[in-house]
Amino acid sequence: MSATVFLLMVIGFVVVIFAATGVRVVRPWQKGVVERLGRYLRTAESGITLIIPFLDSMNKVDMREQVVDVPPQEVITNDNVGVTVDAVVYYEATDPVKLMYNVADFYTAATKLAQTNLRNVIGEMSLDDTLTSREKINAELRRILDEATDKWGTRVVRVELQRIDPPRDVTEAMHRQMKAERERRAMILEAEGDKQSKIERATGDKQSAILQAEGQAQAIREVADAHKYEKTTVADGEAEAISKVYSAIHQGDPTNDLIAIKYLEALAAIADGQATKIFLPIEATGVMGSIGGIADLFGANGAGGPAVEEEKAPMPAAGTREAKYGRYQGVVERSEERPRRRG
């Protein structure tokens, strides 16, 4: 009885040890590489995996994205300037079998590979290109490392340069250059602003002068139109008055005697001034003949004799040649008749 119990206890212990060593749990981000007697057997997915104790073994591979920190190193650029560069490499495992069997220490291998290719890439570029072409350097390094690590069962996701530090004297020279460049740009911008301000001011003065000239021209036109209207109105009034006077004179049919009397009244008004010389119109001879006729008329009435009524000839139009010569002839005739009447 005791031997049977002991045997059962031994069998139970063996079963427990078998279960403890033969049952493996693979996490979701892991894959298991199962080996039997030192040879690759299969790849275990996530979950519970059974292996034969003492015959099989399993190594777990992390399939998540991981980081390789490339330590700082001195790199000489194409224009012989030494800079300190460090980078970060992000990778993920794609084939756990290759990662287990093709590389012994992936972290060290990736670090050395990144340092070497970083020196090669930056060594072909100048300092200015290195400082301004981070994206280009990152893309070139990622391409080179991805091709080199493909046989290791990994994929390089991206490469990022952390810093690029030139020497201190180069940094100071760059700072002075940057300061001078910014001062130059500030002076250019200030000059451009001053130029634009002067242009705007000149344009404003020009527009102001144009508007002022247009205003003055408009004012002159308005004043000229007012004077024109005034003179036109006065001229129209005078023309209308002259027309009415002319019509009244012709409708009244004045005689030469009446014209002579009005002429004498006008001469009295002219002689009333301060002038020492009086200029008579050229038609004054005709009027003087009428004055002589008036004198004869008054003389005849004073003597008691009957007034001699002469037949009136039609008066020629004023200002014509017949009117001028007619008046002169009438004066001559009256001057010839005067002695005969007195006799």
Task: Provide structural commentary.
The protein is built from 9 helices and 8 strands. The chain is α+β, with helices and mostly antiparallel strands. It has 3 domains: 2-62, no CATH class; 66-166, 2-Layer Sandwich (Tetrahydropterin Synthase, Chain A); 254-342, no CATH class. A hairpin with a 5-residue loop joins strand 6 and strand 7 (82-93). The protein is rod-shaped.
Short synopsis of the structure:
The chain is 61% helix and 18% strand. The protein has 343 residues and is an alpha+beta fold. The longest helix is centred in the middle third of the chain and has 85 residues, at 168-252.
Number of helices: 9
Q: H/E series, N to C?
A: HEEEEEEEHHHHEHHHH
Main β sheet profile: 3 strands, antiparallel
| CATH superfamily annotation of the largest domain | Band 7 domain
Task: Describe this protein with a few key phrases.
343 residues; alpha+beta; Tetrahydropterin Synthase, Chain A; 3 domains; three-stranded antiparallel sheet; 8 strands; rod-shaped; disordered C terminus
Question: How do the helices and strands line up, and which of them pair or pack?
Answer:
Layout: H1 2-22, E1 23-26, E2 30-36, E3 39-44, E4 47-50, E5 56-62, E6 66-76, E7 82-93, H2 96-101, H3 106-123, H4 127-132, H5 134-149, E8 154-165, H6 168-252, H7 256-271, H8 284-302, H9 321-342
Helix pairs in contact: 3-5, 7-8, 8-9
